[in-house]
Amino acid sequence: MDSFLKNFIVKDTESFSLQNFDTSFTAGYDKDTARQLLDEYKKKLALLQDSFYAAGSHSLLIIFQAMDAAGKDGAIKHVMSGVNPQGCQVFSFKQPGPEDLLHDFLWRHYKALPERGRIGIHNRSHYENVLICKVHPELVLKENLPGHSTPGSLDHAFWKERYKSINHFEKHLSENGTVILKFFLHLSKDEQKKRFLRRIDDRKKNWKFSEADIHERAYWDKYMEAYNDAIRHTSTSDAPWFVIPADHKWFTRIAVINVIVSTLQQLKLAYPSLPEAEAVRLKKYQEALMNES
Q1: d(CA 263, CA 282)
Q2: Which alpha helices (DSSP H) does the chain contain, by range?
Q3: For residues 105 and 129, is the Cβ–Cβ distance under 8 A?
Q4: What's the confidence (pLDDT) of residue 95?
Q5: Of the candidates 113, 1, 129, 117, which has an alpha carbon nearest to the alpha carbon of residue 61?
Q6: What mean pLDDT comes out for the span 219-242?
Q7: How, if at all, do strands 119-123 and 178-186 pair?
Q8: Which residues contact 265 (CB under 8 A, 6 or more apart)?
Q9: What is the CB neighbour count within 10 angstroms for residue 268?
Q10: What gap in Å lies between CA 180 and CA 65, rounded to an integer?
Q11: According to DSSP H, which parts of 102-184 are helical?
């Protein structure tokens, strides 16, 4: 992992503040260099994914969280474009449906976890339950939780328990072979405005824009506070948060793929080797095929 990326890992949760992270940071790279690096990392990722899939001892869960227009979809598209689709799955979580609301808030996310050998990408995730639900606490009331019939009942203790549930959930996954990477794509409010305007000006991008984008933008400060609290309470050694600068999409992509590649390299996974008896049988099969008339 490039040395500058270590500054993006949230380790000191006590003093953590999003205000200390520069959304426009590029580590001195330019756009052309970044594109070349992205191509190189894609090749590395493809090779690593192949051995990861063959080994079948771990799964990799990659979580993307961000404000609207921060580039989650683009990061997933460009970073993962070189991997084998058989070993990768992407889930984009929308509002929970009627069946989801009959279960605990982690239920639908647990169902979407990747199997061993596979890479799972969650575009938004279980963190929505401490982000949008914290900004709009009336959404929690749809869960019909005992003792919580009004937004006012969702006090500090309630959110603290949710953070604890998330930490326990992720620790359990980690202990059972799931490697977890959590990326917050940190976009500035000014850059979001520029991207919204581009979506409006470009007819080909009009479909990306919705009235809800403007509605949620009005809650920007509350969202920043919710993200700050969530990251501070849930960045752990088992499942660290990476705060990735997102004002320049090209830099966001090389930062994300760099972390993923470095993480897979650290696993030091190899292709499975056959037991001696099976290797002997394989040799016989080879001879039989070679001797076919």
Answers
A1: 34
A2: 31-55, 72-79, 98-101, 107-110, 132-135, 156-175, 189-201, 211-217, 220-234, 249-267, 276-290
A3: yes
A4: 93
A5: 113
A6: 97
A7: unpaired
A8: 48
A9: 8
A10: 14
A11: 107-110, 132-135, 156-175
Name the token pair of 3.
């040395």
Q: At what angle do helices 220-234 and 156-175 cross, to 10 degrees?
A: 50
Q: How confident is the model at residue 123 (pLDDT cuts 50, 70, 90)?
A: very high
Domains and CATH numbers, the chain: 3-290 (3.40.50.300)
User: Where does residue 218 rank: exposed (0-12), middle (13-18), buried (19+ CB within 10 A)?
Assistant: exposed
At residue 284, the pLDDT reads 87
Q: What are phi and psi of 42, to 5 degrees?
A: -60, -40
State the amino acid at position 199 in one-letter form: R
Q: What is the pLDDT of residue 206?
A: 87
To the nearest 10°, report the CA torsion of 74, 78, 80, 82.
160
d(CA 235, CA 14): 11
Q: Do 224 and 135 form a contact (C-beta atoms < 8 A)?
A: no
Residue with tokens 């080879």: 286
